[in-house]
Amino acid sequence: MSIAPAIDDTKHKHPKKHNHYDFRSFFQFDLDKGTIIDWNGSQNILTTEDFIVGLVEGLQEEVGDASAATMYTIGCEWGQKDAFFFEKWFEKEFDQNIRQTNLLFLLETWWWPFTAQGWGRWEVDMGDRKQGFMFINIFDSAVARTLGDVGKPVCYLYAGLFAGFFTELVRKQLSCIEIQCYSMGETYCKFLLGGQDRIDAAAFWMNEGATARDIEKRLRAGEVLR
Amino acid sequence: MHPQLASIFDQAENRYLKVEELKLISQYVASMPERLDTYRNLRDRELEIMQAVVDQLQAALPEESEENLERCIKHALLMLRYCALSLLINDESLIQKRFLDWVGPLAQAYDTKTIDAKLYRLLNQQLAKMLTAKQMGYLSPGLALAQEALLSQSMNPAGGRR
Amino acid sequence: MLSQLERLSRELDGRYASDAELAFVIDYVRSFNLRVQTYQKLQELESTIVQQACVKMRAIDPGVFVGKNQEDLTRKCVRDLVYGLRATALAVLLNDPDALQEELLLWLQTIMRSLGKSHVCDIMYSALQDVIKQHLTPPQANLVCPLLESNRRILGPTA
């Protein structure tokens, strides 16, 4: 015997409610079907940290050192697909073309579902946009928090996600690298987003032991790799 | 939360609540002290209630294995706890979602209906002794729901006991 | 109170709540009449409060309703003010600052920052506190103002 539960459907009652990112509003649980569909129609699954550990360690076991690049690539594909998905739901919700919208507002709106899903909160620093790069901070990275302090950056999925998404958004090839990570003992993760030359430079400097601060300074001073 | 209350807030969407809606909340709050009393009574006398039931059940069903009896008693204990919570929060759906959905299949798999029928009779008698009429008024609907659901389940189609 | 109750219900997971865990329910029942009173007063005086808050906001910063391109943002600001006030009123009624934060403030904070409106929020919730204190009794104001101050801290510019 089972009582068919009423589907708690906030969206149908208030489709134009923009502040819908709390747990109960954003996710719709259908007990009968066993599905979790979010406000934008995406299917979700709930996972524990074991899943993340399994993913990372399993990949490591399969492809060794290539796991970082693999996660990055996965992230890129995800980001790219998400850009198209995002454009559709944003324009539907705000009756506005994404390219005619205040950029910061657009970005905050893009990231909110990720926050609702547990990927962490973020902060975008577009101060260096004119110079062709920008920084993104992630607080409570799901991957980093799960793996803890392992002495190396681990948020390749995020880096790829940003690269893929922003490349689609600005229609220019962008790459992303994590220059500071919770898994290295820092309090939050920091990503550099920009052209490949900038990313290569940052990677090189990181290899030589540069901190995130060093990298920021050098980039702002116009340093490049010869 | 009571589905009626939940729907008020779903619909409220930034307007002020209507008088009838405020009334519903007021009613719930007014009933809170009694609900709390009922809940605490069940909590504080749980051992007393269950011990009496266990003793009587063992006497009534001497041929049943200890394992089977224990299983049923554990389930009944949980049932009582979830019914208590449900009356506190005034949300009967909790009983289905948090209890029946998973204990139901277990009870069916182990085919505990015979024991449960006797157990519930003893339990309800015991509760009637330990609770005031008013408190029983809060508990009974949810308890009846849970007991009827478990007793009305058809036997495991695979037949027999595990 | 309601979201706290829900949270408790999840945490209990098959056990009983202790008296300590139930204390907030008793507190709420005790404060309920005052909360209803306060809620209804806010409803009754909404237009007055909003009007006076706007006057106060302009007194603090004459350009507060003027946009970057000199456009008049009064209507938008009033709309935001009303929205925030009503959400706060509900939080007062239900004693649920957590729900207010999760359902509105955390999201609004990022949006206001992205639109460069943090300083407007700062002024708005300062002004509201002043106006509320003028119209509500001290016990009533003591229920509302801490929430308004919390709104101000969350939505205003970071230190």
Automatic annotation (TrEMBL), chain A:
- Supply the InterPro entries for this chain: NO_sig/Golgi_transp_ligand-bd, V4R
Q: Which superkingdom is the protein from?
A: Bacteria
Enumerate the spans annotated as 4-vinyl reductase 4VR domain.
133-195
PANTHER family (UniProt xref) = DNA-DIRECTED RNA POLYMERASE SUBUNIT I (PTHR35090), SLR0144 PROTEIN (PTHR35090:SF1)
Q: What is this protein called?
A: 4-vinyl reductase
What species is given as this protein's source? Answer: Leptolyngbya sp. NK1-12
TrEMBL record, chain B:
Taxonomy, superkingdom: Bacteria
Question: InterPro entries of this UniProt entry?
Answer: Globin-like_sf (IPR009050), Phycobilisome_asu/bsu (IPR012128), Phycobilisome_asu/bsu_sf (IPR038719)
Give an example GO cellular component term for this record.
Answer: phycobilisome
Similarity comment: family membership? Belongs to the phycobiliprotein family.
What Gene Ontology terms for biological process does this UniProt record contain? photosynthesis
This one is known as Phycobilisome protein
Keywords, comma-separated and alphabetical:
Bile pigment, Chromophore
Tell me the first and last residues of the signal peptide.
none
TrEMBL record, chain C:
Q: Which InterPro entries match?
A: Globin-like_sf, Phycobilisome_asu/bsu, Phycobilisome_asu/bsu_sf
Entry's transmembrane regions: none
Instruction: Give the UniProt record's GO annotations in the biological process aspect.
Output: photosynthesis
Can the keyword Lipid metabolism be found in this entry's annotation? no
- Keywords, in A-Z order: Bile pigment, Chromophore
Supply one GO CC term from the record: phycobilisome
SUPFAM superfamilies noted in UniProt:
Globin-like
Question: What family does the entry list?
Answer: Belongs to the phycobiliprotein family.
Task: Output this protein's name.
Answer: Phycobilisome protein
